[in-house]
Amino acid sequence: MILNGQIALSVLEAWKADQEHPHRDRDKREYPSEQRLADLLDIAFRASLLNEEGTPIRGSITMLSPEELKKQEIPYRRSSELVIRLSEPRTLDVEVVGKLALATESGTSSLLVHWFDGICKVWGIIYYGKHLSPLSCISVGFINFIHSAPDALTIEITGIGSLKISRAHIVIGRIDKGEFKASVPTPIAPHAMGKFLYGLFDIGVNGDLFASEEDGFRGRLLFQCLEYLLDRIDKQCRGATIIFIPKSASGSLSRLAKFPWKCDGGLEFVDLMKERIKYSKSIGVGVISGRAKLDMILRQRLDNLAQLATLDGAVILTPDFGIVGFGVKLQAPVYSGEVREGPDGFKANGEIIDFSRLGTRHNSALAFIASIPGSVGFIASEDGPIRGLVMVPNGVVNCWPDCRVSMFC
Q1: Distance, CA of 219 to CA of 217 (rounded, Å)
Q2: Cβ distance 60 to 111 under 8 Å?
Q3: What pTM was computed for the model?
Q4: What is the phi/psi pair of residue 300, to 5°?
Q5: Relative to the CA of 168, which of 28, 191, 269, 322 has its CA 20 to 30 Å away?
Q6: Quick one: CA dihedral 371, 376, 380, 381, positive or negative?
Q7: How far apart are CA 82 and CA 97, in angstroms?
């Protein structure tokens, strides 16, 4: 076993805390044994370090027995079984995961494993509907074709040494580079990074409420666009840096960065968002189809933006998603102040973060953001989290260690 056995206990504690939380209304499920969970996590972790014919291993594994499928899933969450059953269950090991995991896809299918006579075996592949992400098409369901993700412990291989632990589509936590971190509320929330984003996007708020109906429509749409963009960057599994700067900061950019690909213009987000907000306010014939079409166009534009982020260097954006430049080489003076974990809605600022242990991408972004008050940045690792950075008025940089999908998404 190469994965620290203590991680299984941490995962189990996070699973229990989520299930027993009084406000989350989770269905009660039997907890797996610590040893079985440790064995399964270790196999998945070792598989994540391999590749199959040059292709990195990706895929997911769900702990669910045939009896649980019949008694817990089909009566309440699925209109039919929708499972490929193996005629002879295969003993689960790293080689089997390497072969079969590639037959699964994130969010739509998973290997089914259970212990038969004390031996963990793969007995099938289960299929289910994809969870709707921000800006997804309006959901239309058919009573005979409802197949929800299994409400059972699922381990997804998301990168080299990276695993995501979930139930249904609820993320319990992640293992990155051998360390487990339980999910927290999404940082893009009013009591976390949200209050800084409101200022950046010029969205009026009074306490916990939007200042006007117009602010509400704009705020919700801009946050949806940002969440979708981060989700796309996460799925690309490549390093990326995206930084939003206030409009007032344009004059100071030349001394803080080099722009090999400086831009004039963009992807016309302003006009598209205005039209989308107009449909949000409307009712009547054609509104639903029009809104779905506009969401599709927004997703395409955000996909284009995420693609620019795959190039070496940062993407610099205005608050309305206008592109100032891409492939930008950040060269701001080194920041020597504090970096603290930002508030997450459960607690205020956390511990000091040692940013020096991170690479050049992270530290150059930190220095740039610290030089421009009001800027907000997101830095993605190739096989790890997306960190969010904000320079706050007291001279400290707030960092949210993981801005990916959380327990509430």
Answers
A1: 6
A2: yes
A3: 0.78
A4: -60, -45
A5: 191
A6: positive
A7: 21
